[in-house]
Automatic annotation (TrEMBL):
InterPro entries: Ankyrin_rpt, Ankyrin_rpt-contain_sf. Keywords: ANK repeat, Repeat. The keyword Glycosyltransferase does not apply. The keyword Repeat applies. It holds the Pfam family Ank_2. This is Ankyrin repeat-containing protein. ANK repeats lie at residues 478-510. It comes from Micromonospora pallida.
Amino acid sequence: MERRRERDRQLRLLRYASPPAMVAAVTARRRAGDWRGACAAALVDAHVDLRDVTSRYGTDEAARIEGELRGLAPDLLRRFLPRTDSLTLVPRATVVLSRLRGPFPTDTGRLGPGVPLLVATLPLTERAPQRVGLRVTDSGRLPSWWYDLPGWCWDADEVAARRWAYGASAVRLPWHSLAGCSYPQGDTATSDHAGDRAAEVERVAALLAARQPVAAYDAAGVAVDPDEVWQRGPWFEARLVAHAPALPVLVDETRRLAHRYAVMTQFSADRRLAVEFAAGDRLTVRAAAWNEPAAGPCAFGVPAPADVALLGWGALTPDDLHPLVHEALFPGRAQRWQAPEAAPHPPIRVRCGPDWHLVRIIDGRLATPQHSDEELRREFVLAGLGGPLVGCAAAVRAWRTGAKPLPKELRKVRQDIFARALHGDTDGLLALLADGLDPGLRDSTGSTLMHWLSHLDHVRMLPALTAAGLDVNGRDRDGRTPLHAAAVALATEVMSALLAAGADPDVVDVQGHTAAGLLATARKLTRR
């Protein structure tokens, strides 16, 4: 967390996985005992029929599943679901949530059937709406590869385990003194006893920051064979670093999974590393052989939370934390929960002729203080007649249309706006529109927010966009309208709303496809 880029990525993860409005809505419904309402607010589609569970598995198992549902905090769960490097949910993954007192039954080396499991299922593709399915499946029907999340990732009642997972000891947080004052994250506190959880997390982080991954694994309780490092060289150390976010919880998680599934060797999701038990019950990590039958629960599947590190850097305050995280880390403190405020965008330099000009993003619009609107319009007219478009005028056009080139800092801001659409942050986008965001803003594919309706609450977003003057038949660079985009996402309700708003069903894209044709193809490919 020494690099600002890492901190920014973690903040984006928190903001995309469970936006502030989602946290507020889920918390209210969860406290009211409405688990279905909490799931709906968290973009989790609950396909759970407790009567069916009772008829198939009996009242005891149905009661267990019901108890897990009552404790479910789906907004917190979203923060720990497996994600790609671009922060989208890992496509087609299955995530086991259920807890059992004992290990699973096995049948000839495989999980035996007959145990109902509460599982989360993730979208089919990275670009699909980032909704999560919640269902009950039989233990014998798990895929060959799955994830398994501990209770502190999703159960509201796992307060003590959550405090441990976030790195806190009984008396303090990592990078915080007993008095609660933060200190630099390169430092570690002197501890009076070896069991200081906060000091352990600090040591691991300090070794990683010093680029000593082997020592960091050893400090976390996982041995690395020196011969393995020597033989495989930088590639192996790079894999250790890539999986290091899980280090603070790796030993506990590996033992938990070994107990549940009776697997003594567990593989990372990329099948590059294996964690296994060596002599004396100590864990070791090695490179996985290319021909090893990697299956079972995923190792390194739960990254340790970064919230406390963000607190230490001042990127978050206690009042910014998720309410359940605040409860675990600051017991007895009254939280005045608030959405973390985004810092204002600094002015951005753009080369304009022989000079450098500053442009600013104000309320979602690109402002050019050194050019009047009339000057910009004149430049656009000349460009339409075949003249060159450069400097600030080119930046404004690229910002609005998704064209290139666009200065890097402006590109990052625009990416963030459309990432909110991808992750379903309807409230955040409506707030931006109310503050003046250009509704005609386009992403790098030429799509407007109208093309992203399948990812959002279209009941609220569509009227806002049409009222702002956005065309329901506007095309992206592939000639696709919002109706085409909804068809690809199998969002038939969105298609109906668009048709009612005046969308043309006969429009074809550059490949000659209508929306109905794309819908038929998508249904065939997904068997829906």
